Amino acid sequence: MKIRAFSAVACALWLTHCSHAPTQLETQAPSASQTSESGAASSATAQAPVRLSYPLARKDAVVDNYHGTEVADPYRWLENPDSPESRQWIEAENQLTFGYLEKIPVRARIKQRMTELWDYEKYGLPSREGSRYFFSRNNGLQNQFVLFTADSLGAEPRVLLDPNTLSADGTVALAGTDITQDGNLLAYGVASAGSDWKEIRVRDVRTGKDLPDIVKWVKFSGSSWTKDGKGFFYSRYDEPKAGEALSGTNYYQKLYFHKLGTPQSEDTLVYERKDQKEWGFGGHVTDDGRYLVINVTRGTEQKNLVFYKDLKDPKAKVVELLKEWDAEYSLIGNDGPLFWFQTDLDAPRGRVVAIDLRKPERKNWKEVIPQGEETLSSVSLVNDQFLVNVMKDAHSQVRLYSRDGKPAGELPLPGLGTVYGLGGKREDTETFYAYSSYTTPTTIYRYDLKKGQSEVFKAPKVKFDPSQYETKQIFYTSKDGTRVPMFLSHKKGLKLDGTNPTLLYGYGGFNAPMMPGFSVANLVWMEQGGVYAVANLRGGGEYGREWHEAGTKLKKQNVFDDFIAAAEWLISNKYTSTPRLAINGRSNGGLLVGAAVTQRPDLFGVALPGVGVMDMLRFHKFTIGWAWTSDFGSAENPEEFKALHAYSPLHNLKPARYPAMLVHTADHDDRVVPGHSFKFTAAAQAAQTGEAPVLIRIETKAGHGAGKPTSKIIEEYTDLWAFSLHQMGLGGEQSVAGDQAR
């Protein structure tokens, strides 16, 4: 058992991936941290640019006063995506964008090649509950992964839940599962059109039929069964007011218990804090069934509290075990009242401590595994051993320790890649993990802890030859002298002549490490001679708390400086040149691209900001945006306002020759509301003095990224790469030819 220190609220900005242990979406499809691809190596020349006529966007005389500084917001009306005027603007922009994209010759060929490569069997990590195994599988091009169960690893599996049957277009997705310890009941979340809102339903594993139980208005929460399977804990918000489900702020989360077979109206309120509207709660039952452990979070701040309740005593009250906002704590497991935690208290790169509930004072804590040179990524307790996943320069290493903290060996890995999984219970003698890299499709392994041996459980068969590609890690120097790592992936034998189409990806926020991972869309880019670069910027989690905090609030400019320095390194080392350098990022990475392109419009050839936070003065006024102030700061603070206003992409657009831009967002994004991208696009189109196009692609029936169907993912990245190639002069009909493996 491993309970993350932060609930889902703590990853409420970026997709993906909470701790960036990649999800199925992240490893089998482009994700917020692993995608940015384009693809071709053609000698075609760019067509003469044609200045576009953009849809009319009315400018209002809206002005706000921030601590004596007046700031205009002429496109505020676009914050309401459902108003008739906004709908008209959205339809006109999409008509312009898709009309432009449809004329790019290489677009159809990119889609064909991407679809061909995507069509391979994919598996999620197996888990065992009771006598049954559970795992997810996608046969290739299914919009959503299907959940299977089997009596043994060698037995014929049967379908337990197929989300593809829940909607005709694949926009209803599975959003989390929890299975009773006897393996007989499944609680599963369902989300529609990419929304963060979900319903929790219950299915009988033996019959494959749903029970009448339905729990609504759940967001940023999983479910956790009691050991007897009579009910589960979950967290929810009050039902939003009419018309505010996708834009209203989310405060006052509450922790409930749902008793099986009863209506939600009878659910028991376990814990709430009427005096703390920003606190979020994640309730998790320990493997022995004895304790309910409550993670208390405050937005996306990388610090948390830990409370618990003794489930053996019906009258027991919630006990505040760790009640200081001083560090991050993640429960690894317990032996009765002895709890093991992963924490960065007095250890910015992480360590493991033991806390006895009978004497919980800090002076009685025992350090089990001290801080090392590498950053602690995750720790699990399986076969009474600690399985420790560490990050060394943003790639994985796995080490084993005994319960008393003595080293017990290392798990050999194939190369520079990412490992996730390694879960299980204390008594289990097996665990499963996944390994992937930029050139290695995600492979699932079974590890026998008694024998100390790994074996391949499922290996994908993708129609390409990985031996033709290579990944290397370089280190470059940022503006202030900081040493920053960057991964470079491409075909072997690359010529450094400054002509290679290159796509630079970055994120730089929320303690999220950008680690190697396989993506079909990346492959479509690389197999045509492209370079795929990932810069491990400050603000991420690659080197622990200090690295993260060096890219937050008043120090956020460090992130943009790191990204710009990465671009300059690629150009000065002749990997590429400005006309053939594209930058891409999503969410916080969309902010990154927006800031970089407004600060250095001369440096890039193409910019692809996706679902980005573009209005840094008003982000906290929508849905869960308030939770990001721990990373960004708030315009309500005078000093932080100055920093935010200095880099806010929306507010730093001015008449200039900007690179070609394809902004992309979704109408159902209730995390980073689409108004950010709408306002930025309208302002950028008005500010563009050059002839490069500034377009916006607005997806319908989709959200921030989670649960997006395969068909929509392929279409989106086809358009992004076709646009990029066209701007680079590489958009001819012959651009996308498969490599020798076809």
How would you describe this structure to a colleague?
There is one protein chain. The protein is α+β, with helices and mostly antiparallel strands and about 750 residues long. The two termini are about 45 Å apart. The strands form nine sheets. The protein has an eight-stranded mixed β-sheet with strand order 32-33-35-34-36-37-38-39, with helices on both faces. Helices cover about 15% and strands about 30% of the residues. Helix 3 packs across helix 11. It contains eleven helices and 39 strands.
Short synopsis of the structure:
About 15% of the residues lie in helices and about 30% in strands. The chain is α+β, with helices and mostly antiparallel strands and about 750 residues long.
What topology emerges from the helices and strands here?
Elements lengths: L23 H5 L34 E4 L2 E4 L11 H19 L4 H12 L3 E2 L3 E3 L2 E7 L7 E5 L7 E4 L10 E8 L5 E8 L5 E7 L4 E10 L4 E3 L5 E6 L17 E6 L8 E4 L7 E7 L5 E8 L5 E7 L8 E4 L6 E7 L2 E6 L7 E6 L9 E4 L5 E8 L2 E8 L2 E8 L4 E5 L6 E4 L8 E8 L2 E9 L4 E6 L10 E9 L5 E9 L10 E4 L14 H7 L4 E5 L9 H5 L7 H16 L8 E6 L1 H12 L6 E5 L18 H4 L5 H10 L12 E7 L8 H13 L6 E6 L10 H19 L14
Parallel strand pairs: 34-35, 34-36, 36-37, 37-38, 38-39
Antiparallel strand pairs: 1-2, 3-5, 4-5, 5-6, 6-7, 8-9, 9-10, 10-11, 12-13, 13-14, 14-15, 16-17, 17-18, 18-19, 20-21, 21-22, 22-23, 24-25, 25-26, 26-27, 28-29, 29-30, 30-31, 32-33, 33-35
Helix pairs in contact: 3-11
